[in-house]
Amino acid sequence: MxxxxxxxxLLSYDSRKNSMTxxxxxxxxxxxxxxxxxxxxSSPASLVLDSVRAGDEGLYRxxxxxxxxxxxxxxxxxxxxxxxHAPTILTxxxxxxxxxxxxxxxxxxxxxLTCQVDGGKPTPRVVWLMNGEVVDEKSETQGPQRVTNTLxxxxxxxxxxxxxxxxxxxxxxxxxxxxxxxxIEMNCEFYVGFSxxxxxxxxxDKF
Length: 207
Hints:
By secondary structure, this protein is an all-beta fold. It has 2 domains: 11-78, no CATH class; 88-187, Immunoglobulin-like (Sandwich). The protein is built from 1 helix and 17 strands. The chain has one helix at 29-32; strands at residues 11-14, 24-27, 36-39, 46-49, 58-64, 72-78, 88-91, 100-106, 111-118, 125-130, 133-136, 140-143, 146-153, 164-170, 178-187, 197-199, 204-206.
């Protein structure tokens, strides 16, 4: 169903009876709260909204009335992008948030973490990166305001020690993606080797 236009204008600028410098300028403070104004220096003149809010989204109509010419109307749709909140990383075992460091894990164990992102319009894309490389980009929508991505790393090795895991969320090309970074802590097995040498002259073994 088409969206109805407001009964009263949001802004008006009337110079039909006066010069441009003496034109009547009016704004509906209840709707825009003083955040809107006409920019007459631009070509063509434009409506400027400061501190854009989610409620500003919608269909706008510009109506131009002339003294002797027919009225003209132009319509445009304003879409407001809302960035998502910073990701929260949860452990599989306890489902609790982790910050900075996760672990320690033993070599050969598996690691499972869930990245949870709330908010954002349109729905954000959530990916996992490890040391700068994308390792998981399969996200799931859990509701109108939540997206998750669960990462599993099988058979951890010594190379995962202090590896940087980044959960990153983005929903547009205009703002920087939000992200949370943690490092993997591990218990690594170390092997110590010994050499045994025979000293023929003294008849002794050296260790």
